[in-house]
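Posting this for the archive.
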Amino acid sequence: DPDRLTPAIVAGRLERSRAAHLPWATPLQPSDVAAFFSTAGSLSLSTAPRSLDFEAPASQGESLFATRLHRSAAEPLAPILMLLLALPLAFLSPRSNAKWLALLYAGGGGLLYLVADGLLTVAGQVGYLPAAVGAWAAPVMAALIGLTVLLYSER
C-alpha cells in the first residue's frame, strides 16, 4: 500500500514517510522493469551483457544471454556462408550434366545450414550445449563443407 506510513532513516534521523516517497538506490531502470514484464520479444545485444553482469533483471537463464552474445558475432556470417555454398554453381560448365546436382547441393546445403543453425542455437540457449558451441557450430561446419566442396569443384 503506497499510502501506508513506514519508518525510514532520513538524514540520520528516524522519520515516518509514505512508502511511495522512500529513496531506493538501485541500478534498476524503468525500461528494465517494463521489459521484464512485457511479452517476450527479441533479445537486444545491449541487454545480454547487462543481464550477465546482473545489472538488468533477467527472467531467463544465463545460457540464453551468453548464446546471444556469441550469436551477435556469428549471425553476420550467414550471407557469406550462403554464397559460399552456392559458389560451386559458378564453376559449372554450361554443357555439364551435373547442373541439377549442384543446384540441389546449393539449395539443400543452405536449407540444412538454416535448420542446423536454428537447432544448435536453441540447444545453446536452453543450456544443452555450451553457448559458444551452440552459436558457432553450424557456421563453422557450413564453412568447412562449403570450402571442401568448392576446392573439389574447381578440378
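The radius of gyration is 26 Å. The chain has a mean pLDDT of 78.
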